[in-house]
Write a structure and sequence with these properties.
alpha/beta, Rossmann fold, six-stranded mixed beta sheet, 4 domains, Hypothetical Protein, Haloacid Dehalogenase-like Hydrolase, Chain: A, domain 2
Length: about 550
């Protein structure tokens, strides 16, 4: 049915055609008509306002990643539009479908350097699949429809539509249309390529599957799981492909390249066929294109023909929709078994595990087990202690205590609450003498696993056995290729600084330092509160 609507209403009607129920944005002068229409249609489309256009664009990107739908963001002209650039670039690089709608000055002011006029189409040309500036009201609806189609066709990505303000206010004829269905493969054109790939996979003795975001984007996770089962091969996933397969499966061996695991690197070096699914060969993966997978057969399966052979030569390829291709491969492939190969890879996975594995010898103990035992003893004794980790200082408090005596610490009641990404990394523990006596239990636990030092008064500090600041200095010098400690300076005031001061050539004690620190110092400076560090550095000609 034909009806006459203002341009801003046509925009909303077209969004509804595409199934849009949520948009993100920030209002401004050039898009006020659109916001009037959004208010009119607020029962059908939910608008999420942000404090900045960049945030709106990232939100639309995140919405698309989590829902699988096309993200929509709205911004005004000039700085509003340019504030979208980082979010658009992110979506472009990660192949996220997005439609960005920007306002602009009226058509009669275009190209005149008018107030808040920018060529946003020119600016975003390198980071969009396509962009439009609407100059004819009659084309508005079809441009919006086409933008959604392009955003989702082939390799997905962002599309920008720049709409002059007078277009949004103009009357035009609107006719509702069904969205054009996206078809990302031509079965007749790729079935031969699929058959050839299937034969290569059948003949492989050491296959290796590497999957990326294309599997997720194609909604092919079920097909991926079945393909992995059929091929019986180790699997590595890119950063964008982390949802392509359950990471807890035995066959998953981590990422490749710069952020990869040794197991994945070993698997790549020893495989005879690498099957790449929906992933581009970025520099973070390749590291060195000349040596990457040297002399290995590679099958590259991707929807974007531009990625085939772009960064690395491949033995074979299939260009098309990953979901369709995986389904066809599963039809052509038998249930395969590579027992010897998988056993080898699983041995590597155990040997080069990223996470700590259970200790089998009674003579060995994991560092985190020691910390857990210490925390358990402290919790049982009902005392306060401070655990310094790689991310924060935690106050271990007795049950019922929710505020620490040390400002800026996070209160916890168990070692489990101090874990980060499953790991428990503690550098030192601080407590007082009476508390230390209460957790020692006279069984040698403290002496066996910790170095204890006096940090003033009743305060004590525990660090791992054999580890102190002096060891840190020695390791730093080794790392830097230094022999000896010539021209090294240490500044300290507490018992935990004694090891460091003994390891450097020149030991400086602060004026407020403990007597035993001053006793071994080569020079005693002013205290901390009176710029003692600056005074000492001037004394030795360092500044």
């Amino acid at each position: 049915m034909l009806k006459e609507l203002r341009g801003s209403d046509v925009i909303i009607e077209c969004l509804l055609e595409q199934g849009v129920d949520t948009v993100f944005g920030y209002p401004g002068g050039a898009v006020l008509n659109i916001y009037d229409s959004l208010y009119k249609y607020s029962d059908k489309i939910h608008h999420v306002i942000t404090a900045h256009e960049q945030a709106a664009c990232h939100a639309a990107d995140g919405y698309s990643r989590t829902t699988g739908r096309t993200g929509v963001v709205i911004a005004t002209s000039g700085p509003g539009a340019t504030n979208l650039v980082t979010g658009i670039a992110t979506a472009y690089m990660d192949s996220i479908p997005m439609v960005a709608i920007t306002g602009n000055v009226t058509r009669d002011l275009l190209g005149l350097d008018s107030f808040q006029e920018v060529d946003i189409c020119g600016i975003t040309m390198p980071i969009t699949k396509h962009n439009y500036i609407v100059k004819d009201p009659a084309e508005l609806a079809d441009i919006i429809r086409e933008a959604f189609y392009i955003a989702n066709e082939g390799r997905k990505g962002p599309v920008l539509i720049d709409i002059p303000k007078d277009i949004t206010g103009a009357l035009m004829v609107y006719e509702k249309k069904e969205p054009k269905k996206v078809v990302n493969h031509n079965p007749d054109g790729i079935n031969e390529e699929i058959a050839a790939a299937a034969e290569l996979i059948k003949n492989a003795e050491k296959p290796f599957i590497y999957a990326g975001g294309g599997v997720v984007s194609a909604d092919a996770t079920e097909e991926m799981a079945e393909f992995v089962r059929k091929v019986d091969a180790p699997v590595s996933l890119s950063l964008m492909g982390q949802c392509a397969l359950d990471n807890t499966k035995d066959c998953y061996i981590g990422m490749l390249g710069m952020h990869g695991t040794k197991t994945a690197a070993m698997t790549l070096s020893e495989c005879d066929l690498m099957i790449v699914l929906g992933s581009r060969f970025s520099d973070r993966v390749l590291c060195n294109a000349k040596t990457f997978a040297k002399d290995k057969k590679i099958i590259h399966i991707d929807i974007d023909p531009a990625e085939i052979g772009k960064n690395i030569d491949v033995y074979s390829h299939v260009t098309g929709d990953v979901k369709y291709i995986l389904a066809k491969l599963c039809e052509l492939l038998p249930d395969m078994k590579h027992e010897a190969w998988m056993n080898t890879v699983m041995d590597w996975k155990k040997q080069y595990a990223l996470r700590m594995v259970p200790i089998e010898s009674e003579d060995e103990v994991l560092p985190q087990d020691v910390i857990e035992e210490l925390a358990r003893r402290m919790a049982a004794a009902g005392i306060e202690a401070f655990f310094e980790t790689n991310v924060a200082t935690f106050a271990l408090e007795p049950a019922g205590v929710e505020q620490s005596s040390l400002i800026g610490t996070s209160v916890v009641h168990s070692a489990e609450e101090m874990r980060v990404d499953g790991s428990l990394r503690v550098g030192k523990v601080c407590l007082n003498v009476p508390s230390l006596a209460r957790v020692a239990n006279d069984d040698g636990f403290i002496e066996r696993y910790f170095e204890a030092c006096n940090t003033g008064g009743q305060n004590r500090e525990l660090s791992p056995k054999g580890i102190n600041k002096g060891v840190g200095v020695a390791r730093a010098l080794t790392y830097l290729g230094r022999e000896g400690n010539a021209r090294t300076f240490g500044f300290g005031d507490s018992g935990n600084d004694l090891g460091m001061l003994a390891a450097v050539e020149t030991a400086v004690a602060m004026g407020n330092a403990m007597p035993e620190v001053k006793a071994i110092a080569d020079y005693v400076t002013d205290d901390v509160a009176h710029d003692g560090t600056v005074t000492a550095m001037r004394h030795f000609g360092l500044i």
